[in-house]
Amino acid sequence: MAHGPWGTVFESYCGSRAWLPADASAQGATLHVARAPGISRDLFHHTVLHAFVPLALVLHGHTLVHAACVAVGGRAFLFPGESRMGKSTLAAGFAARGLPVFSDDVVRVQVDAAGCVRVWPGYPGARLRGESFLLGASQRGQRPGRYGLPRFRVHTTPVVGVPAEGVEVAAVCFLGRSRTVAPSWARLSPMQAITPWVESCFLLSLPKPQRLRAAFERGSQLARSAPAWRVAYRRSSPHFATLCTRLVEAMEAIAASGTPHR
Predict the structure, then answer these.
(1) Deepest of 17, 46, 51, 153, by most Cβ within 10 A of its Cβ?
(2) Pairing of strands 75-80, 167-177
(3) What are the C-alpha distances in Å from 149 to residues 46, 92, 99, 236, 256?
(4) What are the residues facing 71 on neighbouring strands?
């Protein structure tokens, strides 16, 4: 990535590039993209949707979070986590239960004037790696996708009817690892939530002199604006259906009473 008087140039690890002109406005920005030689259309789409577009939006002042997002009871729940924590798998599992999935990987968030965190749906679909147990036997395999990226995208129903002001976030559930398959819930204070918020935000497109200040400002604002939990469990394909059921029950309880425990 390079900043200059002509704008910002992004280059992905697979060689594809994007250019955001310096005179582009937040309301009418045009992102020029170019696919690298030998790169498939699917991989290029992945790069544009999961890297170039989020980074360009961040440059225009938006906040993008590396998280899955689902709506339960008319309110949204975020599941931020690092790569290979199972965000897309959770999104596919929630979609199979008929829940509106806003995103499996990247979510735009905003704190409104009342201090509530709001989100908007992104593009539909959930990406799965080749070894995912959610794939059929004819698709499944141990060979990873090119550059280690997910090889398959499963359909999720597009979310419609979302108001222009977005949907309020009921809770943020930071994913963690545990020795047990049953999910454990630990409430995070606003101070404890700052670091995981910062780790989940897209900030790399900002110039280095601005990055540290932006990280603290966005992390602290989000941490004090939405209830946060650490949700830890051991990933296990035989127990995945039960995991999804328990998570949905916990989200319903949070939407009703503010706690995941009925």
Answers:
(1) 46
(2) parallel
(3) 9, 17, 26, 21, 38
(4) 76
pLDDT (tens digit, 9 = 90+) per residue, 190-221?
999 999 999 999 988 888 888 899 999 999 99
Residue ranges, comma separated, of all CATH 3.40.50 domains in the chain are: 63-257
Is the pLDDT reported for residue 83 higher than 90?
A: no
Cα(247)–Cα(78) distance, integer angstroms = 12
Spatial CB neighbours of 56, under 8 Å, sequence gap ≥ 6: 8, 10, 18, 20, 29, 31, 205
Question: Helices 190-200 and 208-223 sit at what angle, rounded to 10 degrees?
Answer: 140
**Cα torsion 215, 220, 221, 222: sign:** positive
What is the SS3 assignment for 10?
strand
Question: For the whole model, what pTM was predicted?
Answer: 0.86
Non-local CB neighbours of 87 within 8 Å, separated by 6+ positions: 66, 67, 68, 79, 80, 81, 104, 105, 175
The confidence score (pLDDT) of residue 45 equals: 84
Class of CATH domain 63-257:
alpha beta
